[in-house]
Amino acid sequence: MKKATRQAYGETLVSYQNHPDLVVLDADLSAATKTELFKKAAPEKFFNMGIAEADMIGTAAGLALGGKRPFASSFAIFAAGRAYEQIRNSVAYPNLNVVIAATHAGVTVGEDGGSHQAIEDIALMRVIPGMTILNPADDVETEAAVEAALKHAGPVYLRLGRLAVERVHEEKPIFTIGKGEILKEGTAGTIIATGLMVQEALQAAQQLEEKGIKIRVLNFSTIKPLDEALVLSAAKETPWLITAEEHSIIGGLGSAVSEYLAENYPAKVVKIGVQDRFGQSGDPERLKAEYGLTAEHILKTVQQLMN
């Protein structure tokens, strides 16, 4: 079954339409972010702020000060980029309960091209004090992440995708912010993946297992705060780690893992992600191949490490 995490986001909001404090804001992209589903279900709790992302974040901050639990939605390039100052100063600085739900992250935005493909948003959000960053792998984990974000005290950046992805969980997982998940055990090496790269990591691990090589696969749907204990155990128990993310290799999951290990348990880490370049227009699957965001590229990297 394939479903985009942005679709699961919209559907989950609808399921919470009777929550007394939930309100949803959008910057004139509700058809794409799927908040239109909530708008139809609870129009009195939905606010279209127009093409004014900074205003949307400021309004969300005001609603949070009034006791509401706002989810402010836009494309990741606009949410993290255009409204960065408002997220920093109006939401994070006073530590308000605002969820920035950023859809269309990464190069799989596809034909919209490099100008709309956010590959630096995790880095921007990571550096903000007190910001929590969630990047669910599939639709049911997105549902669990939305529920966790709704209850969380403090700002949350929820990263979502445009592309429909395979489900990696048989059922909705128990989602604990700050905790990674072991999807596959192994001692030959570890792949720490996030978002749609979890599916690619599992495919690569399955192909390796058929050859008698067992690789550990970890799903880090929380990037900040990082599950340092799980990173440390992987570094101690396997000879190398690969991080895999649909984001620049600078400032994202790979950087977070490397920064922690550099000070606590130096280990071999290879980062798979966008290699310090912009995105481009194209079919999402072809772009994944172009930027090395595939199971095949993970396999090649594993082979190089094992040789």
Q: Key terms for this structure?
A:
307 residues; Rossmann fold; globular; seven-stranded mixed beta sheet; five-stranded mixed beta sheet; 13 helices; alpha/beta; 14 strands
Helix and strand arrangement:
Layout: E1 2-4, H1 5-15, E2 22-26, H2 30-33, H3 36-41, E3 46-48, H4 53-65, E4 69-75, H5 76-82, H6 84-92, E5 99-103, H7 121-126, E6 132-134, H8 139-151, E7 156-159, E8 164-166, E9 181-184, E10 190-193, H9 197-209, E11 216-219, E12 222-224, H10 228-237, E13 241-248, H11 253-264, E14 269-274, H12 284-290, H13 295-306
Parallel strand pairs: 2-3, 2-4, 4-5, 5-7, 6-7, 10-11, 10-13, 13-14
Antiparallel strand pairs: 1-8, 6-12, 9-11
Helix pairs in contact: 1-8, 4-6, 9-13, 10-11
Largest sheet: 7 strands, mixed
Binned strand content = 15-25%
Kindly provide the radius of gyration, computed on alpha-carbon positions and rounded to a whole number of angstroms.
Answer: 19 Å
Task: Please work out how many helical segments DSSP would assign.
Answer: 13
> What would you call the shape?
globular
Order of helices and strands: EHEHHEHEHHEHEHEEEEHEEHEHEHH
- Could you tell me the CATH topology label of the largest domain: Rossmann fold
Mean pLDDT: 97
- Could you give the distance between the termini? 36 Å
Structure report:
- It is a single chain.
- The chain has 307 residues and is of the alpha/beta class.
- It folds into 2 domains: 2-166, Thiamin diphosphate (ThDP)-binding fold, Pyr/PP domains (Rossmann fold, 3-Layer(aba) Sandwich), CATH 3.40.50.970; 181-306, Rossmann fold, CATH 3.40.50.920.
- The chain contains 13 helices and 14 strands.
- It has a 7-stranded mixed sheet, with helices on both faces. Strands 9-11-10-13-14 form a 5-stranded mixed sheet, with helices on both faces. Strands 1-8 form a two-stranded antiparallel sheet.
- The chain is globular and about 60 Å long.
